[in-house]
Amino acid sequence: MSGVLSVAGTPIGNLADASPRLRSALETADLVVCEDTRVTRRLASALGIRLRAVRALRGQNAIEPEALATHLLDGEHVVLVVDAGMPGTSDPGAPFVATARAVGATVVVIPGPSAATAVMALWPHEVARYCVAGFLPQRGAERGRLLADLLAEGVPTVVFEAPNRILELVDAIGELDPEREVLLAKELTKIHETSFQGTARAAGAWARAIDRRGEWVVVVGPARVAPPTSVVEHERLTRALAESSLAPSEAARIVARLTNAPRQEAYAAILAARPDARPSERPAPR
């Protein structure tokens, strides 16, 4: 008889958010598979319980999905957790769920806190759907490409960010669309929880004025119904992307997507707006 895999949510900062069901599952599990064994043991200690067996998802002594299959085929109860929040949302876990289903094990969820749903509860507008982008790449063209893509989204997008990169993220949004509505939230559920909702331009000033240490979650508001097609807006966007570190072809792709301009036209405009363009290539000032 196959066992049971319980996919469980853990507190994202406040241990008081741990549910009685999570405590019971951790205490009775034959095996707990976790992101970091030290973090999970501290959680168990705070809950006043002892874990029977613990294995990490990653690292030198990590458990492989095949080994998990053996435990489940032996009829064991395995609990899958990450350091904070729900497994599967910008955290590992999906391969183990797939393995459990492949061997016919019962897979159940023990719902818990999630930074994405928590921050959306602070969003001041009703929404039928939203997107979770997780962590963007730390730097490079891929980061710029994904940022431009989420700015084109027609729904709010949740982004996780590290304290040393939060200003860079907010400034990048403000450079492309200073009036875009955003929500910045720091240290959700913790003692020093704080948040700000307003334009990207105002958010940059707010973030600079506070202690930025801690974990950040950002909601980027949806794109406007009409893309920025005015001449002034089009030129401002083109100039900002031309002066960025993006390759001209990538910058042109972003301009074309956000303004509905033909790709070749956008590419030519990017080349003309680059700081190293010859004077004859630059557009006349308006």
Description:
- This protein has three domains: 4-113, Cobalt-precorrin-4 Transmethylase, domain 1; 116-220, Methyltransferase, Cobalt-precorrin-4 Transmethylase, Domain 2, CATH 3.30.950.10; 231-281.
- Helix content is 38%, strand content 17%.
- It has eleven helices and ten strands.
- Helix 2 (37-46) links the parallel strand 2 and strand 3 (54-56).
- Helix 6 (141-151) packs parallel to helix 10 (248-259) and helix 9 (231-242) packs across helix 11.
- The longest helix has 12 residues, at 231-242.
- Residues 232-273 form the RsmI HTH domain.
- InterPro entries: 4pyrrol_Mease, 4pyrrol_Methylase_sf, 4pyrrole_Mease_sub1, 4pyrrole_Mease_sub2, rRNA_ssu_MeTfrase_I, RsmI_HTH.
How many DSSP helices?
11
How confident overall, as mean pLDDT? 89
Tell me, briefly, the overall form. elongated
Can you tell me the CATH architecture of the largest domain?
Answer: 3-Layer(aba) Sandwich
Strand order of the largest sheet: 3-2-4-1-5
**Structural class from helices and strands?**
alpha/beta
Straight-line distance between termini: 75 Å
CATH topology of the largest domain: Cobalt-precorrin-4 Transmethylase, domain 1
CATH level-1 class of the largest domain:
Alpha Beta
**Helical proportion?**
25-40%
GO molecular function: methyltransferase activity
Protein name: Uroporphyrin-III C/tetrapyrrole (Corrin/Porphyrin) methyltransferase
GO biological process, one term: methylation
Domain Tetrapyrrole methylase: 5-201
